[in-house]
């Protein structure tokens, strides 16, 4: 399964070996020789998976993982010595032990990329992950509130369909239906977050009726 990978590794000899193995298997691989450079690469190139050595010289590995997770959803495979690395298993998706065995490396990368997020709902550049209740636009987490997520998830079920305001409020609020301006506030916040990621025109108002999510915006 092809994919875009980022290797964050300060051992240049090991990096050359791993890049050769991965490129030979058909993956596109970028190499960052430091944690700081790796974080820049993630922001600029949005890899599908990061291979992170836990013995970086410039940044603590736990800090790198925290910053990788902040606003991004990327698989992380940690590379560590037999007795090295202080991360909990839950911090990363998988571990590889040194010396790295080529077959183990390729099996782990292939499995992780194939698993992916099967429950994603995609509408153009918009991606919702129901299992995590997160919403991404152009692969960046919009950091939605619970109600903002519920609104956009409802609209994403039928992109291109106009949802009347009353249908949205009845479906998403328990008990008394809130006044119209409550929905307006949530919609305005959603639009602001989308526009912050160049998502102009994705969420539109149909005057006098309701709202529509445009897959072609």
Describe the 3D structure.
- The chain has 217 residues and is of the alpha/beta class.
- The protein is built from 7 helices and 12 strands.
- The protein folds into 2 domains: 4-115, Response regulator (Rossmann fold, 3-Layer(aba) Sandwich), CATH 3.40.50.2300; 121-213, Winged helix-like DNA-binding domain superfamily/Winged helix DNA-binding domain (Arc Repressor Mutant, subunit A), CATH 1.10.10.
- The chain has helices spanning 12-24, 35-45, 61-69, 102-115, 146-156, 165-172, 180-195, and strands spanning 4-8, 28-32, 49-53, 75-80, 94-97, 121-123, 126-129, 134-137, 140-141, 162-164, 203-206, 210-213.
- The strands form 3 sheets. It has a 5-stranded parallel beta sheet with strand order 2-1-3-4-5.
- Helix 5 (146-156) packs across helix 7.
- The radius of gyration is 21 Å and the shape is elongated.
Which radius of gyration do the C-alpha atoms yield? Answer: 21 Å
Average predicted local confidence, pLDDT = 86
CATH superfamily caption of the largest domain: Response regulator
The largest β sheet comes out as: 5 strands, parallel
CATH level-1 class of the largest domain? Alpha Beta
Shape: elongated
Uncertain runs are none
Query: What's the number of extended β-strand segments?
Result: 12
Number of helices: 7
CATH architecture of the largest domain: 3-Layer(aba) Sandwich
Distance between the terminal alpha carbons, to the nearest Å? Answer: 29 Å
Widest β-sheet, arrangement of strands: 2-1-3-4-5
Helix and strand string, N-terminal first?
Answer: EHEHEHEEHEEEEHEHHEE
Helix content: 25-40%
What is the CATH topology assignment of the largest domain? Rossmann fold
Structural class: alpha/beta
Number of domains: 2
What percentage of the residues does DSSP assign to strands (E)?
A: 15-25%
């Amino acid at each position: 399964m092809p994919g875009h990978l980022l290797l964050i590794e300060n051992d240049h000899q090991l990096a050359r070996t791993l890049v050769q193995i991965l490129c030979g298997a058909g993956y596109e691989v970028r190499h960052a020789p430091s944690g700081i450079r790796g974080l820049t690469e993630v922001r600029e190139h949005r890899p599908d998976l990061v291979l992170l050595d836990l013995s970086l010289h410039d940044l603590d590995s736990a800090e790198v993982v925290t910053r990788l997770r902040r606003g991004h959803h990327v698989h992380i495979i940690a590379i560590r010595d037999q007795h090295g690395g202080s991360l909990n298993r839950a911090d990363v998706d998988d571990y590889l032990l040194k010396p790295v065995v080529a077959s183990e490396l390729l099996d782990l990368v292939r499995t992780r990329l194939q698993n992916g997020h099967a429950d994603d709902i995609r509408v153009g550049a918009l991606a919702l992950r129901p299992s995590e209740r997160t919403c991404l636009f152009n692969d960046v987490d919009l950091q939605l509130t619970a109600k903002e997520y519920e609104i956009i998830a409802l609209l994403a079920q039928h992109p291109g369909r106009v949802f009347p305001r009353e249908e949205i409020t009845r479906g998403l609020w328990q008990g008394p239906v809130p006044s119209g301006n409550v929905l307006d506030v949530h919609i305005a916040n959603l639009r602001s977050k989308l526009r912050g990621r160049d998502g102009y025109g994705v969420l539109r108002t149909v005057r006098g009726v309701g709202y529509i999510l445009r897959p072609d915006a």
